[in-house]
Amino acid sequence: MTKFMRRALETPKELAWLAAKAALDSAEMKLDQIDGAVLGSAPDAFDGMHMKGEYLADGCGGWRKPYLRCYVGGGTGVYAVAQGWFQVASGLFDTALVVCEEKMSTCQPHPQAAFISIFDPFTEQPLKPNLLWIFALEQNRYMQTHHITLEEIARVSVKNKRNALGHPSAQLGAEITVKDVLASEVMAWPVHRLMVSPTSDGAAAVVLAAGDVARRLTSKPVWIQGVGWCLDTAYWTNRDLYYPEYVEKAAWMAYRMAGVKEPRREINIAEPYDPFAYKELHHLEGLQLAPKGQAPKLLADGVFDRDGDLPVTPSGGLLGVGNPIAAAGTMKICELFWQLRGEAGRRQVPGKPERGVAQAWGDLMQVGTVVVVGTSEPKH
What we know:
By secondary structure, this protein is α/β, with parallel strands linked by helices. Helix content is 37%, strand content 16%.
């Protein structure tokens, strides 16, 4: 990973190269040992750049190699890893380099100018919606359905920003309190500023390899045991926003592939997507790691702390590490890799976790992407 922050000096191509090189160095590999490359990055309109995928290709290690670009909003960082897995699992490649990059601080026009164009021109665009108030609607529905308080939501920000203090790539690690969160500016009620992830620039990358290659490269590979994805309707007004059904369906697809039947018992560590504080709780329920409406109580009871029964977002997540959109989900895959190998340093969870799940979400609250990883080789 690169450090997540606002970066004035590096171009998007340089950020992609920094992450790609770090992944190759970690695996003690050279680029000529990579068979193909997968890029995850936002649409051209976000960066004001024509043919962005082609521009980034050589920075991602895709020059004169089979090269694929994918994007499903915030879900990209996990979905790109699944796309790389497809290429290797199919037998097409022995190795693949997955790179996700985003430079949000210099986007021209602002991403919101691109988002406004995707809403229904008759029923939604006249309201001049923006993402913040749509997510505020969803948070409010979640809170009202389950009688959840703002204090319970704020605890996610407190936990994740504290966890990020141990992450060398973090943008907003901090010791804050629930009172601090609720005293911060209201962006769109009930969303407060400290419940929202920052604008970030950065990139993250992973090297994927077929089983026999992985065993030659390292004595302790981390295995992709299952992948899942689900695309719900873009008409978010037609859905009950209290529960992310698309996450549940994506999760069960990944769990079935991984042989997981009781997620709460068989998942040792979780990295759910947390661009807003409530979304971590929302997504934990979709991932079947908490009963509907009960994630806030489990958080308050310490279950999701780094030393709790089910450590959740020990990285610090998007709220603490940062949110360069496409790269954010891949950051979570990186975190599980380090945690399962016992290499997470100050962030290392106690014991020896054997299986983790990463999840990301994107577009108009409709994309669920899930990857299950573990220390044991899958049977499929």
